[in-house]
Design brief:
Layout (H helix, E strand, L loop, with lengths): L9 E2 L3 E5 L5 H8 L19 H13 L4 E7 L5 E11 L4 E9 L8 H15 L5 E7 L3 H10 L2 E11 L5 E9 L4 H12 L8
Parallel strand pairs: 5-6
Antiparallel strand pairs: 1-2, 2-3, 3-4, 4-5, 6-8, 7-8
Helix pairs in contact: 3-5
């Protein structure tokens, strides 16, 4: 059985992940402003809000190719866009997905928003899609991301050297992490303890 690639909404206490559409563009641009949220992304023309049209075009192309399920990350209380993330590089035949293409606007970083988004996506990947592998990659210089992925429970597997050409012409080596189904229960328990210490876990 292959993976169900239908659009889906995932709701937590801090964030709500909704299918990303062009309609989210203005809100994301306003939220980003001049912040360099795309500093470690490859293939985008700028690091700030001006890159959103191309970001959306790339996401739409991946949806058309059935290799991605992109989300707009909303503040669960206000409904305002605060970032984006997606399931990408989907290999339905082998039940493998990557979680990535993620950014959170600066004023919501270290708020638990990104961690909850990862929790919701991992739970959906393993418990609904039945994935056999969830992969996460990051730029070798993005130490904050590397630390965060390891803290989630991602197992570092190695580095893809000269993996991507950045917009400034520099080369990105991508650090590869993964989480497997037998690792998910421990990862889930740790994340739920961090995110929902009162035990009120979103359904």
């Amino acid at each position: 059985m292959s993976l169900d690639l239908s659009p889906v909404t995932l709701t937590g206490r801090r964030v709500k992940l909704v299918p990303l559409t062009a309609e989210h563009g203005p809100g994301l641009q306003q939220a980003i402003g001049t912040a360099p949220v795309f500093r470690y992304f490859g293939g985008l023309p700028t690091q700030d809000a001006a890159a959103i049209p191309e970001f959306l075009n790339v996401a739409a192309g991946m949806v058309a190719a059935k290799t991605a399920i992109p989300f707009c990350t909303l503040d669960a209380e206000t409904g305002q866009p605060i970032g984006s993330t997606r399931f990408g590089n989907i290999d339905a035949a082998h039940k493998r997905v990557e979680i990535g293409w993620t950014f959170i606007v600066p004023d919501r970083q270290r708020s638990g928003a990104n961690r909850e988004a990862k929790y919701l996506m991992l739970r959906y990947a393993f418990e609904t899609l039945g994935c056999l592998r969830v992969e996460l990659k990051t730029h070798h210089l993005n130490q904050q991301s590397r630390t965060a992925i390891a803290a989630l429970g991602g197992v570092e597997e190695g580095i893809l050297r000269n993996h991507m050409i950045m917009s400034d012409g520099s080369l990105r080596h991508s650090v590869v992490f993964s989480i497997l189904p037998d690792e998910w229960p421990a990862v889930k328990a740790r994340l739920e303890g961090q995110l929902y210490p009162d035990g009120d876990i979103p359904a």
